């Protein structure tokens, strides 16, 4: 029932944010639609278009629907998947808490904290990939909790395929799944399972996520020539790079800003209670399994230490993780659980409320809105002069603008981008000729795109082109010879 109510709330949220023009306001929301569409709509269509920076599952699921212009331009099919993911996540949270504590009050508390957060709710009304991450990892947490508390040691294949799905959705799932598996095995050991039997179970569990990771790195190697793309798409932030104390503080502050001070306080207290119960009560070791969701910390921690600029959105998985231990701790309150649940909900809702337009993720999603208005000048130039020529542009930096240009009838196959090997390889050396009649350049964001850097290093790169117009950090060039 809680899952169905979450789907209903997600559907309402998608309508609210669509009417406010916010469904596709985040540049990554549009970029994900572009990557899904380009698999079939491309100068060189095929599996190579799946790419190697983002994980492939969200784009594969949306590959066919977005070939329809209505779904592509509105993101409706991807948003529907996000709404269903909200329901799946809520149902898995409830099932996990009831399984471990038998408390419906605890289940309600966690689900309410999950779906009422305005940042979480907003993401589930967009084509972003976080919703599928939450749905799949929460399903993994539920299935591994179920396995850790059952008498059967055999690992159902369906459990493994959910881990594969999670690991092919977003990178946060890699440490999450690893932590969930480790904690589930510890719980089984605490219940008396022999080490030899657990070693077999470990392989049965680990082969699925390991296989998914191997598949992706091989795909990356084949499509872009690198086993794993970890840099080259941002300007390092020296204030974060290599500074563990600063990064840790930013992670904590970001989680508080997203979930509220009371969510973090209650989560810390709940984790302490659950840890005490797990060590005091052998059967209670399984209470720690869902806490594997906190392993999502590994991704932003590693990214920021490498110099990746701070992104509020990277802390969202921690907000989701915080909701689970609170519900479990409520369940341990037994008869007092309904009162404790109500108090927890009221305290958290003092800090956050659904549909809050000032929520951090909504603000962050509109960073590009001013540039979007500026790019209308460039779009007008294309409307006046475009006659079907190929446009040379970096999808890594301008995928969101490629999506915007679908409003004037441009398809992805009208662009020459990084996925179009070997033509791109020649074009990035020769300056687009002889393939492209136009060239789009992102000149500012993250220090400028790959084409902008080529132009700065070698001004003759634009020989044969004239600069026609510019706006929103984007310059448009037209070939004159």
Global structural class: mainly alpha
Q: How many helical elements?
A: 22
Distance between the termini: 65 Å
What pattern of helices and strands is seen along the backbone? HHHHHHHHHHHHHHHHHHHEHEHEHEE
Strand order of the largest sheet: 2-1-3-5-4
Sheet having the most strands: 5 strands, mixed
| Morphology call | elongated
Assembly type of the shown chains? single chain
Any overview of this molecule?
The protein is mainly alpha-helical and 481 residues long. A 5-stranded mixed sheet has the order 2-1-3-5-4. The longest helix has 30 residues. The model has no long low-confidence stretch (mean pLDDT 93).
Essential attributes:
22 helices, 5-stranded mixed β-sheet, 481 residues, 59% helix, 5% strand
């Amino acid at each position: 029932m809680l899952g169905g109510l979450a789907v209903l709330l997600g559907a309402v949220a998608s309508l609210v944010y669509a009417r406010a023009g916010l469904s596709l306001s985040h540049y990554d929301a549009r970029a994900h639609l572009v990557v899904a569409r380009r698999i079939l709509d491309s100068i060189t269509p095929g599996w190579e278009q799946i790419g190697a920076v983002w994980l492939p599952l969200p784009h594969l699921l949306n590959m066919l629907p977005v070939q329809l212009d209505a779904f592509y331009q509105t993101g409706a099919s991807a948003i529907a998947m996000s709404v269903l993911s909200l329901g799946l996540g809520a149902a898995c949270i409830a099932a996990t808490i009831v399984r471990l504590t038998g408390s419906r009050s605890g289940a309600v508390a966690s689900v309410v904290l999950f779906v009422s957060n305005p940042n979480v709710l907003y993401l589930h009304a967009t084509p972003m990939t976080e919703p599928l991450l939450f749905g799949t990892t929460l399903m993994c947490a539920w299935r591994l909790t179920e396995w850790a508390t059952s008498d059967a040691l055999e690992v159902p294949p369906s459990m493994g395929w959910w881990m594969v799905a999670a690991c092919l959705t977003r990178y946060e799932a890699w440490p999450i799944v690893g932590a969930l598996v480790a904690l589930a095995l510890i719980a089984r050991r605490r219940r008396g399972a022999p080490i030899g039997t657990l070693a077999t179970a470990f392989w049965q569990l680990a082969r699925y996520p390991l296989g998914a990771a191997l598949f992706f790195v091989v795909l990356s190697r084949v499509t872009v020539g690198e086993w794993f793309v970890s840099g080259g798409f941002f300007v390092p932030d020296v204030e974060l790079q290599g500074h563990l104390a600063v990064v840790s503080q930013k992670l904590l502050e970001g989680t508080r800003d997203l979930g509220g001070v009371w969510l973090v306080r209650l989560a810390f207290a709940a984790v302490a209670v659950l840890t005490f119960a797990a060590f005091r009560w052998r059967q209670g070791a399984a209470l720690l399994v869902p806490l594997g969701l906190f392993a999502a910390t590994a991704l932003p921690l590693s990214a920021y230490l490498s110099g990746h600029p701070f992104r509020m959105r990277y802390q969202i998985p921690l907000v989701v993780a915080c909701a689970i231990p609170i519900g479990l701790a409520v369940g341990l309150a037994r008869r007092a659980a309904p009162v404790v649940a109500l108090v927890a909900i009221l305290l958290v809702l003092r800090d956050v409320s659904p549909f809050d337009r000032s929520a951090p993720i909504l603000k962050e999603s509109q960073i590009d809105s001013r540039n979007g208005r500026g790019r209308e000048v460039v779009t007008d130039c294309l409307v006046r002069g475009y006659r079907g020529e190929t446009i040379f542009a970096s999808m890594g930096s301008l995928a969101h603008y490629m999506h915007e240009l679908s409003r004037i009838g441009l398809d992805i196959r009208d662009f020459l981008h990084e996925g179009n090997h070997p033509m791109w390889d020649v074009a990035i050396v020769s300056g687009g000729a002889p393939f492209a009649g136009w060239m789009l350049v992102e000149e500012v964001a993250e220090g400028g795109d790959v084409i902008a850097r080529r132009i700065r290093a070698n001004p003759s790169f634009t020989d044969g082109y004239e600069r026609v117009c510019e706006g929103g950090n984007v310059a448009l060039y037209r070939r004159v010879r």
